Amino acid sequence: MRIRIVDAFTDRPFSGNPAGVVLLDSWPHEDWLRAVAAEVNLPETAFAVPTPGRDDADYALRWLTPTAEVELCGHATLATAHVLYGNGVAPGLLRFATRSGVVTTRPDTEGAITLDFPTAPLTPLDIPPGLAEALGARPVSVHSPGPAIAEFLVELADERTVAGLTPDIGRLGQVIVTAPADDPGSGYDIASRCFFPAVGIPEDPVTGSAHTAIGPFWARRTGRTRLTGRQLSARGGTVRMEMAGDRTLLTGTAVTVIDGALLAGPGQAVGSQLT
């Protein structure tokens, strides 16, 4: 069985956010999916199965971290679409049935891929006790982007503060931090970082789904419908955003870095620790 490792939201290998991509004919046992995701040990591994019986979707798509299944994942969707377009399976629109509804992807003429995702709801919150201490920085504002995205979207004072964070990971659940870019000429408008230890990812390198909250948040502040975000992880990556009402369009590129064989197929036994 074939498996690819794809770096998403980047045009260079060994940057952006790596995702495993496994294309299947049908769904195997749940334990096998979890075992593969744990073995690959990347922020997410995507599993896709064709859905010939559905009129609204071409594939069913699931995303698993090494420890949990997530509701929405941008970079692994981008990686999956990158693989399918590279295979010549579909030249244009791809529709994926997910736990967050049907999401779509479409390639452009320059090699980028645009994801059409649901816009995250943003609910203002009081600053939770202990959050500033856990982050090591005082929030300017805090919002809830909904459970499919994160526990908190935290606005910080400036990009320098975002870049310099050394949070107490053990005290965080799922937190997005963001601030405007310090330099308007830097090529991006917004800086961010994402900490998701609750699902086994201490810091996510580049988080597409987070930008369904980051984009609308800053669109309200700036009055702009198109923005570019830069995630300031060690690997780094860039997400272009366009706000379209209850949908947010996320555009980026991807690079396949490993194309290999998964020798332990779905029919093989899975260790008892996963059952």
UniProtKB/TrEMBL annotation:
One of its GO terms (cellular component) is cytoplasm. Pfam families: PhzC-PhzF (PF02567). GO terms for molecular function: isomerase activity. Keywords: Isomerase. SUPFAM superfamilies: Diaminopimelate epimerase-like. Transmembrane segments: none annotated. The active site is at E44. Belongs to the PhzF family. This is Phenazine biosynthesis protein.
